[in-house]
Amino acid sequence: MTGSQRIHVLGSGPYGKYIAHCLAGLANAPPVTLILENSNSIKNWKEEGGVINVIRRGKVISERGVQVELAQPLAIQAHGTKPKKDIIDHLIVTTEGIKTVSMLSSIKGRLRSSSVICLLQDSLGVVEEINSTLFSNLLERPNYILGSISHDLRSTNKEYTVVERSTGYTKLTMLKPLSTTHGDIGINCHCQGLVRRIGHAWNERPRYLMRTITRSHTLNANGELMEKYLTSELQRLAINSVIWPLSTVLNTPPGLLLHNYHAKSMMRDLLEELSLVIRSLPELSKMSKKDKTFSVDRLMNVVQSSIAKSRGQGLSIPSLVKARLRSNIDYWNGYFVRRGIELGIRSPNNEHLIRLVKTKAAVKGFEMDLHIPFGPRKR
Question: Which parts of the sequence belong to the Ketopantoate reductase N-terminal domain (predicted)?
Answer without folding.
Answer: 7-160
